UniProtKB/TrEMBL annotation:
Alphabetical UniProt keywords: ATP-binding, Hydrolase, Membrane, Nucleotide-binding, Transmembrane, Transmembrane helix, Transport
Name of the protein this chain belongs to: Alpha/beta fold hydrolase
A Gene Ontology molecular function term of the record: dipeptidyl-peptidase activity
Biased composition (Pro residues): 261-274
Pfam (any one): Peptidase_S15
Transmembrane intervals: 621-644
Region (Disordered): 239-286
UniProt entry tagged with the keyword Hydrolase: yes
Species this chain originates from: Natronosporangium hydrolyticum
Length: 966
């Protein structure tokens, strides 16, 4: 089912789903213990989990009387669920279960099964105008859908298995989401037989929901929510065809039965044998294809607003007939209001208005916010569990007459990170009473910026995208990824927050606006901006405003207060607030005429907060149970860890005094594998303070194996490694003094370089101050590029970032494997400067490389390995040694070449960019110089010439190929 269909067809209450996450270990030694723990958990679950109640269900096509006169029949397709054991002698309380817009009774099957399992008789039905029920859609009008539901109450009271409070008075609660939630409110206001209601993600005033105006204006001045309205009218499909002749139900009726129903949405297969559609109501002859199964007056009101972009007083009055706003103060049934923060259709303000009106009438009311909604679905698992508990407690006390009073406290949640299975982790909070959208306290956050001109393009296109109605997770993506269009918005920003601010309610801000036409439609948004510049619009929510009577000059504009959408979000310290005022939004209708306005912030953003305490997730109960079951296992593991740490500390205390000041000492290192392959036969080396030591060798020489042993990644077969005198072993504490880059860098491309470094350091568990970021970044030389996303880095920049990561904490010993791999000459020169800068203040570097010329220029010392052992080590100059090859810088290289070629014992004499290079095999340099001078050639410089490459080839031979390290 598409995202749109799943939202509209029947929002399912969060308590209708359970989730169990089981984690396991693959360690062989824990396998048996894990099986035992699992068995214990299963036994306890069998003992404490509520016994599953069986049930029977039966399909019923019920005819109820409704319409303005209360005497017009309409057929409703229903299913009645009855728990096993319910009887006339032992009746049970009941629940009337309503579906969401576009849905049917099939949309709430899982919810019905959950409720019947809790001991309730459940009557689910398909609302008029949908599925196989008759009639047309009146959007929960009191004369139609509400009277339909009253007829269902009458039917419930007649069932002998349903508990009653008197004749024709069933013991009943009403539960529904969105469309069904409004029905619950309207029914409770109209019929006091209802004992309790749980409406979710629903509306208070349908006119204000679809024509909002955030400065408190009337819906006739509101801004039309065109995207959601189009989804509502498009979700029902085409109107059924008019029948050839009317059936008996239609005679003399102004609301005939219409069992045919709307065609299913594209992803739902059509019924194999649809019922005869019956008839259509007067006013829509033959079924208006523009209106599908909507009632004529409602359809005309929609078409009027959709075309004009504004609502007439008559259209507003019609929408308010289908709204709880006018009757909510008549509700006497205790009400649990559940509303989602990710909801651009019915935001938190709708539940707030319902809550205040119901409480003012003296009726018990409780409010719960969660992180889902029409744009965000059922929300995180922790929210589902919390709402399930609240709903069960509410129905049990007020309908079944069991349990403790639920109270009137207020609960909500905020995102707190991610769970192990990549879900959203939440923290839930509780306050003693619902404080409303203004909270119990407030924080003022100043925003700065000059008055700015903003343009509305012709036709309102292109338009900013702040939300995608009914798009679920994609809507959240848009809220975090899309910004406003250039030239079409003004920005005002705060300073970084000195401390976190926990928002719970609707922020407000005063604005001043000027318009040459005296009128302006604007969209006000509040972004949470992280230090890296990424901005998130919570829930994708905006505050639309339509201002009139505006001056042409901003200096003459009076402040007007805008109430922003209510949110529940923590703004971390270091983040900033960005107030954005835009001229367009894809979800709303704006005037087609182009215009330019001027906007200024007239004061701070006032952010509401709520004094509250965190509450544990219901899952915490299971954590305690499981903790008790695995206590023995945990103690055993703890004992093993303690013993291991003691062994490690004993090993760590074995410090040799003579090596205490030496960054690295390797003695007699050997590594052989089980198959007999010897990767390292014998390695002895020392790295002293302030040395840059190059580790050289052909492929297969054992360099990588040696480095892995030095990092504690591989255990040696023989020998020892000491770092500052401490014996090295896997996990040894002294490894915290070693930084390393082995086998290439790996970073998260969507994060900046600095964020990658910060995340890496945070994972070490060490204090942030110990990282010494400023020093590391100064040495690495990345400059402002460290704030860019890594996906934009060149290979060389990634290498420098990898070296910077190895340098975090400024470890005393740095081990680098091919740090110049893939770099161009300027980048290699830069890396050389980095390593020279680092090897100061007693620090040292061991670098493995195949670039011999670069090692010769970078390193102070060199270690040459061949066939698993060290064949030479020492200062670079000592390893290179003396050479018969000599460079002569002379006044006439051509003449000099001829003179030297005639000397006995000179093997070759060739010219290059430095002058003349001669191989004086058996001829002293003094003899050669004398011959050149006697020939009248000026000799400026004589330099013995031998490269590291020459020495390397002399040590390992011409064949440098191998099988590669293991």
């Amino acid at each position: 089912m598409s995202a749109v269909a799943s939202r509209l067809r029947g929002w399912r209450p969060a308590w209708s789903r359970r989730r169990l996450v089981v984690a396991g270990s693959t360690r062989r030694r824990l396998l048996v213990a894990g099986l035992v723990a699992g068995l214990l958990v299963g036994l306890v679950g069998w003992a404490v989990w509520p016994e599953q109640v069986g049930y029977t269900s039966r399909e019923e096509v019920l005819t109820v009387q409704s319409g303005p006169d209360g005497a017009t029949p309409v057929t409703l397709d229903t299913t009645f669920y009855l728990p096993d054991g319910a009887s006339a002698a032992d009746p049970v309380p009941s629940v009337l279960l309503a579906h969401g817009f576009g849905g049917t009774k099939e949309s709430v099957v899982a919810d019905a099964e959950e409720l019947v399992d809790q001991g309730y008789a459940v009557l689910a039905w398909t609302a008029r105008g949908f599925g196989d029920s008759g009639g047309q859609i009146h959007l929960n009008h009191p004369d139609y859908e509400v009277r339909d539901a009253q007829g269902l109450l009458d039917w419930l009271a007649e069932q002998p298995e349903v508990r009653t409070d008197g004749p024709d008075n069933p013991r009943v609660g009403v539960v529904g989401g969105s469309y069904g939630g409004a029905l619950a409110l309207l029914l409770a206001a109209a019929d006091h037989r209802v004992d309790a209601i749980v409406p979710s993600i629903t509306w208070h005033d349908l006119a204000e929901a679809f024509l909002p105006e955030a400065t408190g204006g009337d819906p006739t001045e509101g801004v039309f929510k065109q995207a959601w309205a189009g989804i509502f009218f498009g979700a029902v499909g085409e109107a059924p065809a008019a029948p050839a002749e009317a059936g008996p139900e239609q005679e003399g009726s102004d609301d005939p039965g219409e069992p045919g129903g709307a065609p299913p949405l594209p992803d739902e297969p059509a019924p194999a044998d649809p019922i005869d559609p019956g008839g259509v109501e007067p006013g829509v002859p033959g079924g208006d294809p523009l209106c599908a199964r909507f009632a004529d007056d409602l359809c005309r009101a929609y078409l009027e607003v959709a075309v004009e972009g504004r609502a007439s007083a008559e259209a507003v009055a019609r929408l308010r007939e289908s709204s709880p706003a006018g009757v909510v103060d008549q509700i006497t049934a205790p009400t649990l209001l559940i509303q989602g923060g990710a909801d651009s259709l019915f935001p938190l303000a709708e539940a707030d208005a319902n809550a205040r009106a119901i409480a003012a009438a003296g009726t018990p009311v409780q409010v719960a916010w969660f992180l889902g909604g029409h744009d965000g679905g059922a929300g995180p698992a922790a929210d589902e569990q919390r709402l399930r508990e609240l709903t069960g407690q509410w129905l049990d006390y007020y309908v079944a007459g069991e349990g403790e009073p639920p109270g009137d406290d207020f609960t909500w949640s905020r995102a707190a990170g991610f769970t192990a299975d990549r879900g959203v982790a939440t923290t839930a909070y509780r306050a003693d009473a619902y404080p409303g959208l203004a909270g119990t306290d407030a924080t003022e956050i100043a925003v700065a910026g000059p008055a700015q001109p903003v343009a509305r393009p012709p036709g309102g296109q292109p338009a900013a995208v702040s939300s995608l109605p009914a798009a679920g997770g994609l809507a959240s993506f848009v809220a975090g990824a899309v910004t406003d269009l250039p030239g079409q918005h003004a920005r005002f920003s705060s300073e970084p927050l000195p401390e976190p601010v926990a928002v719970a309610g609707a922020p407000t801000v005063p604005l001043r606006v000027a318009s040459p036409t005296g009128e302006a439609v604007l969209f006000v948004k509040l972004y949470d901006v992280a230090p890296d510049g990424s901005a998130t619009l919570p829930g994708g929510l905006v505050a639309p405003v339509r201002l009139t009577g505006l001056p042409a000059d901003i200096a003459d504009a009076e402040p007007v207060t805008v109430q922003l959408p209510a949110i529940a979000r923590e703004l971390p310290a270091g983040h900033t607030l960005r107030l954005s005022v835009a001229t367009t939004d894809q979800a709303y209708t704006v005037p087609a005429e182009p215009a330019v306005f001027e906007v200024a912030a007239a004061g701070p953003v006032t952010v509401p907060t709520v004094a509250a305490e965190p509450i544990p997730s219901p899952a915490a109960i299971w954590r305690w149970v499981l903790a008790g079951l695995v206590a023995t296992l945990a103690l055993g593991i703890a004992a093993v860890v303690v013993l291991a740490r003691r062994r490690r500390r004993r090993a760590d205390r074995s410090v040799t005094a003579e090596d205490a000041g030496v960054p690295l000492v390797v003695r007699g290192l050997r590594k052989a594998y089980a198959d007999g392959f010897v990767a390292v036969s014998r390695v002895d080396l020392r790295v002293e303070p302030e040395q840059v030591v190059g580790l050289l060798g052909p492929n297969g020489a054992g360099k990588t194996t040696t480095l892995r042993v030095l990092l504690g990644l591989t255990r040696p077969t023989e020998g020892e490694v000491r770092v500052f005198g401490h014996r090295l072993a896997p996990g040894a504490p002294v490894l915290s003094r070693v930084g390393a880059l082995v086998e290439g860098p790996g970073f998260l491309p969507h994060l900046s370089g600095l964020d990658n470094l910060t995340s890496y350091w945070r994972a070490t568990g060490r204090p942030a101050a110990d990282a010494r970021f400023d020093e590391v970044l100064a040495i690495a030389g990345l400059g402002d590029a460290v704030h860019r996303r890594v996906r934009t880095y060149s290979h060389g920049m990634k290498q420098r970032l990898a070296v910077a990561q190895a340098m975090l904490g400024m470890p005393r010993l740095l081990l680098l494997d091919e740090p110049t791999d893939g770099l161009d000459p300027p980048q290699i020169a830069g890396m050389r400067r980095v390593l020279h800068s680092y090897a100061t203040d007693g620090r040292a570097v061991l670098v493995s490389s195949h670039l011999l010329a670069e090692v010769e220029q970078t390193c102070t010392h060199v270690v040459v390995m061949h066939r698993g052992e060290v064949v030479a080590s020492g200062p670079v100059a000592d390893v290179v040694g003396d050479s018969p090859t000599t460079t002569f810088e002379v006044s006439d290289p051509g003449a000099a070449q001829a003179v030297l070629a005639e000397l006995p014992g000179v093997r070759t004499a060739t010219r290059n960019e430095d002058g003349l290079v001669a191989d004086l095999d058996g001829v002293s340099r003094a003899t050669a110089v004398a011959a050149l001078v006697n020939a009248g050639i000026g000799v400026e410089r004589v330099v013995p010439r031998r490269r590291l490459e020459d020495a390397f080839l002399a040590l390992v031979g011409e064949d440098t190929t191998g099988s590669g390290d293991r």
